[in-house]
Design a protein that fits this description.
Elements (H helix, E strand, L loop, with lengths): L2 E4 L7 H16 L4 E4 L6 H9 L2 E4 L10 E4 L6 H9 L3 E4 L3 H15 L3 E5 L5 H9 L4 E3 L13 E6 L5 H11 L5 E4 L5 H16 L2 E5 L5 H13 L3 E4 L15 E6 L5 H14 L2
Parallel strand pairs: 1-12, 2-3, 2-4, 4-5, 6-7, 6-8, 8-9, 10-11, 10-12
Helix pairs in contact: 4-5, 7-8
Length: 280
Amino acid sequence: MARIVVAQEAGACFGVERALGMVRNAAREATAPVHTLGPLIHNPRVVAQLAADGVGVVEDSSEVPAGDVLFMRTHGVAPHVEERARELGLQVIDATCPFVKKVHVAAERLEREGYQVIVVGEAGHPEVEGTVGHAPGALVVGCVADLDGVNIARRVGLVVQTTLAQDTLREVVAALIGRCDELRVMDTICDATSKRQEAAAELARRADVMVVIGGRNSANTTHLAQICAAACKRTHHIELPEELDATWFEGAELVGITAGASTPAEQIDEVRVRIERLLP
């Protein structure tokens, strides 16, 4: 029978565990209905479980009755979003990941000090939108091609989406060298993200099959799947154990498992047990 190995660093990070704990406690103890502004984390299964516990998801604070509890999700929000929620009389609780908060502080400081702020990350991603809200003049760059035809100032300051791959940051930095007089790089990629990516790559190089667990709407999980696929052609990204297919493991001697930073440990365990049952 094939061996099953879970990557040394995998699954829910500190920021996710912290936010889940905060929301679950509120669902049990709050005297008013609890809502999150957008999905708390990018994990559809967890969001569904929270909904079953009475935690609703809204896209705008105007949808929430005055007096109700509204959580700012882990990805963070622009300052005016939180201000408006408070003006509407909501009980606002900030569940923004502390590492995302560091990106906000860095972006604000760079803009205040006169740098052209560049946020290296995925345009439209909630974390990136929240960061831009803290530095309204910022430019979002997802890859080197996004710099084509862009006017670059003499002094440039970079911050980075916490879940971005290090390779993307290096490529953007290399492309900016020589285009400005001063380039200040705040490497705000979360240490948990880097460790998960490194551990996934190491395991994928040894594995015959890799299974990556996490929401398909999760940027960090998608990056993990891409990293694994580069080293192991038989890589599969799943959200639920039911998606596993016995044919994936035919002839495999080593099956590797990793999971995104929004994937709780119990979901990893469920997938591992299911794979054990599917192995020949």
